[in-house]
Amino acid sequence: MTPFLLYAARAGLYLALFYAFYLLVMRQTTFFRLNRVLLLAGSYLCLILPLFRVRAMSAVGIASGLTMVAEGAATESPAAEAYALPWDSVLLCLLIAGAAVTLTLYLVPAWKMGRVIRSGKAQERDGCSLVLQEKDTPSFSWGHTIVMSRLDLENNPAIFTHELMHVRCRHSLDLVLLLPIQVLFWWNPLVWIAREELRLVHEYEADEGVIQNGIDATQYQLLLVRKAVGEQRFSLASGFQHAKLKNRITMMLKPSSSGWMRWSYLAIIPVLAACMFACNPARNTSNQDADAQDEKIDVEATEPTPEQEALPYQLIENKPTFDGGDANNFAKWVNSHLNYPEEAKKNNIEGRVTLQFTVGADGVVRDVEVLRSVNDLLDAEAVKVVSESPKWEPGTQDGKPVPVQFVFPIIFKLK
Questions:
Q1: pLDDT score for 81
Q2: What φ, ψ does residue 77 adopt, rounded to 5°?
Q3: Phi, psi values for residue 124, rounded to 5°
Q4: Using only C-alpha atoms, what is the Rg of the chain?
Q5: Are the C-beta atoms of residues 240 and 143 closer than 8 Å to each other?
């Protein structure tokens, strides 16, 4: 799986856990503004968490006193990668296509909404731009603009007050901030549920503002019922005829949540922390040298590179194997034999050394060369260890052993 797809999967998991927590705990409270802030901040936090790698050490590793050790970073053999690549490409294309469709579903209504706003004459009123329509049209607000019919303004001033609350609370900004997450994670159903929950919180906050402005709650609720049959025209805009009328009326009648309920929000911290450790399982460090405490050496998966003397890796019927397994076994072997040069550590020298070598028809590793150099000390250590490799089981083509060439990157990184 490509790094982006792996990141998308992990971020999707974090988002799913966070939104599930919101639905179970946070949505039950009357802390509307706090819920708005946390819903948006938590969503973006879930996009950042997969970038951090937190590993729990095994009990043996803790006993040995090691905090960071050399590890094989490869998770798939080159053969598996060669066959997985088309599937990764298909998944990536599906994600891009879905993101394009999702973005289009918002851009088209936004364009239509702009046409409606420009079709009327705007006037300044109570710090917002009011566009009156002569025909009966559902009211909505976007940015600092409110669009409503002249008849509603004259007969139902509570509608204007409601839309004014949307403008003053900047609810349209929330929807814009959530839009990138919807576009990127359109495949996650909880993202769409979270969007509707955010819009519902907007309505709760606007309803609360209307009642605090002295409008009778009973008359206001009756107005909501009368207008409930109206059509919500634009997906990005806030509107008076928002769905889930029963939820809004119930929330207006609900007593304010106790302040101590805010502390229950902290329960999401161990949930996300557990998810971070689950996505980064523990590694056994018992067989590493204690000097590795100040260093980190990552050995990445090998990649085949065709050359004239050796057959291309992709065309080999039976791939070379090391110690009974794939190339990742070789990565682990190299990882256990590498030593960070002391002089390089003292001078804070680190980087990625890329080697090229050939597994001969006799299984012997030969022709080890440095394709990408970092420093003579690191280069020499990488060449030395790879050159000392035990024999491989050679690759075969048409039943005959053939030489195969690899590119082998090694990352030297200080703690």
A1: 39
A2: -75, 160
A3: -80, 130
A4: 30
A5: no
Residue 231 half-sphere exposure toward CB, CA atoms < 13 A: 4
Rounded-to-integer distance, Cα 345 and Cα 297, Å: 12
Distance CA 30, CA 42 (A): 18
Burial degree of 364 (CB within 10 A; 0-12, 13-18, 19+):
middle
Could you list the mean pLDDT of each consecutive 10-residue stretch along the chain, which spans 415 residues? 76 88 88 91 90 50 29 36 56 89 91 87 89 85 90 88 92 93 90 90 90 86 72 53 69 81 85 74 42 48 48 72 82 86 86 87 89 88 90 85 85 79
**Cβ atoms 382, 338 nearer than 8 A:** yes
- Domain boundaries defined on the chain: 3-56+84-120+157-276, 290-414
Give the CA distances from residue 64 to residues 60, 67, 288, 296, 333, in Å, rounded to whole numbers and listed in that order: 6, 9, 9, 16, 20
The alpha carbon dihedral of 162, 163, 167, 172 has a sign of: positive
Distances (CA, A) of 18 to 14, 21, 151, 249, 409: 6, 5, 43, 26, 37
Q: Distance between CA atoms of 229 and 243, rounded to whole angstroms?
A: 9
CATH H-level, domain 290-414: superfamily: TonB (3.30.2420.10)
Specify the pTM.
0.58
Q: How many whole angstroms separate alpha carbon 360 and alpha carbon 233?
A: 69
**Cα separation, 161 vs 207, whole angstroms:** 9
